[in-house]
Design a protein that fits this description.
81% helix; 471 residues; mainly alpha; disordered C terminus
Length: 471
Amino acid sequence: MFRSALLILSGNAAASLLLLARNLIVARLISMEDYGIAATFAITMAVVEMASQLGLQQQIVQAKDGEDPRFQAALQGFQVLRGVIAGVLLFLAAGWIAQFLGIPEVAWAYQVMALVPVFNALQHFDIHRLNRQMRFWPMVLTGAVPALISLITIWPLYVWFGDYRVMLWAIIVQIGLMMVVSHLVAERPYRIVLDRAIMAGSLRFGWPLLVNGMLMFAVFNGDKLIVGRVLGMETLAIFAMGFTLTLTPTLVMAKSAQNFFLPQLSAAASGAGFQFLSMVTMQAILVMGVSIVVGIALIGAPLIQGLLGDKYAALIPFMIWLAIMQAVRVGKAGPALVALAVGQTTNTMIANLIRVMVLPVCWYVAVTTGDLMVIIWVATLGEVLGYIASLLLVRIRLTISLRGLVLPLVGLLVLMWVCIWFANRRATGQGSVTLLLAELALYALLIAAILWSCRDLRCYIINRHTNAVES
């Protein structure tokens, strides 16, 4: 079991680190304004996914008939249909998107990006179906190999273009190869069927995820759109790079947690062990949030200085707050997985709706003050409120006791405050070797206390380890 968990985490981490390296190299090579434009391509991809997110990949894992070849073919057919529609819509909207962002000359690039949803839709669903059997190699290879090749193409693309087009074609290469690799590692022949009954069932399962996809777009990219529209491409480059550095580990952990825990939660959904496994999931993801905050607190500034140089030095003061925001965001994945395991897909939608409600405040702050730090504070408050809502929904709708989260959450709050305090000391030039040693010691103590307070997670790890040794 832990071998599977390690494979998922290392595979997702490898793909994400390769893409992070790609983004960092592009940021280093091209101008900040061009990187700001390149960052809008990721936003455009998110627009497409937002408009067509029905959770079909999760459905084939969660559904009882997920092993049925016709059911898989119907999901693949539905996926192709929605991907083609999304591609056409993006192609038609390319001019409006470019005009809104104040870069009308880039409209052609957004038309090229219309290939992305089509390539995504043509992926083989075997890479998701095999997760039901705790077989993750096909999914890992589908993510990691295209990411590696996309990274390798950066230098020739830079020599050829030398501007934001480097990122555009690197993305196309990556998404196209993901489609190809998913077919190469599949076990079943690829078939598509348009089955109205299954499509209707998918819509019933997925409409909250579709709405949530729209909300997730606003959560992940609303702040970026505000910054790019009001504060310009260079400020967007700073903000987008901060998001990239902090969001990458967040997405790796959230995706790995879903791949590992969702099959187990779905299998235990009607059993007596669901409460225990739910708490294990939420505690494990909370520990992931702890690692994000501590990791950025310790290596955030050296990472920026070493990889990006003085060009992105203005990002350093924002990093700890961005890390805290992402830690809270990844925390929401715990209650979301617990709810998804029993087919309850509206919980995440409601939690993200609360986060989206603070976007008008972010817009007001951007227009009236132009203060990026205050925008991040407001966004973080929105994430906290969304996390509280997600916990309450799990407690009320699924009657899951949250007592096991009280002490870990208290420990996380203390840890965040300590990280902010040390970051402020360094920002005012009060850093020293003694202060660094004290910081490391305090982090170690707090992490140990948080891990000790996660009683269910400790029991889960000990039991799994014991079973693995005995077998």
